[in-house]
Amino acid sequence: MLLIAHSRILDYLSTQEIAELYTINKLHLNHLKRIKALKSSIWRGDISEKIRPKFWIYQCPIYKVQQDVCKMLRLPESFESPYQFIQNSITLNKPLEESSLDLEATRNEILKDIPRTQLITDNQKEQGQLLRILLALAYIKPSIGYCQGMNFLGAVLLKVVKSEEITFLLLLGMMKKWDMENIFPE
Fold first, then answer.
1. Helical H runs in 123-163?
2. Single pTM value for the model
3. Where are the annotated coiled coils located (predicted)?
4. Cα 55–56–60 angle (5° rounding)?
């Protein structure tokens, strides 16, 4: 199957142009087959544990997300850790200017759900990390705040990437990339 608009177009193309179209078509089909194979591997759980963190980071470029967070917080794009800035702001109870988020009420809601998050029920360190991640998400997205279900997504990503800051950036990136703000409405 050639990627051309009309079958009679071949009459007007040189042999070299037809060969190039065939090559492009073949590359395109190979690309589609690789995508299909990758999706199939994901659903079967065939992706090795070593590559999973890189896979998630590839799916959601965290450097772009980090730049977006810097813009939202009015920090220089080269700011080393906007996540740490958010954590410091939460510790100091300094909400965003336009935010009406009640950090203490949000913290209490998250604390109710964390013990029910099965992946991390036995790990105090991961529970603390997940609490900070979810509070940071609520802080940066006050229109959403915290919703049940975020804890499960966060716990899975935290288990896979094993980094609090990267988990935060991945969740934020996923929310943007897959328009998850509609899943977690106001």
1. 124-140, 150-161
2. 0.74
3. none
4. 120
Contact 168, 83 (CB under 8 A): yes
Q: Which domain holds residue 142?
A: 52-182
Residue 1 has pLDDT above 50, yes or no: no
Token representation of residue 122: 């036995």
Contacts of 40 (CB under 8 A, 6+ apart): none
Length of the chain: 186
In this structure, is residue 1 part of a structural domain?
no
Q: How many domains does the chain have?
A: 2
Residue 181 in contact with residue 175, Cβ under 8 Å?
Answer: yes
Count Cβ atoms within 10 A of the Cβ of residue 82 and give its class: 0-12 exposed, 13-18 middle, 19 or more buried. buried
**Tens-place pLDDT, residues 109-136:** 999 999 988 888 889 999 999 999 999 9
State whether 56 and 132 are in the same domain: yes
Q: What average pLDDT score do residues 67-84 get?
A: 88
**Are 1 and 26 a contacting pair, CB within 8 Å?**
no
Sign of torsion, CA 109 110 113 114? negative
**Burial bucket for residue 156 (CB in 10 Å: 0-12, 13-18, 19+):** middle
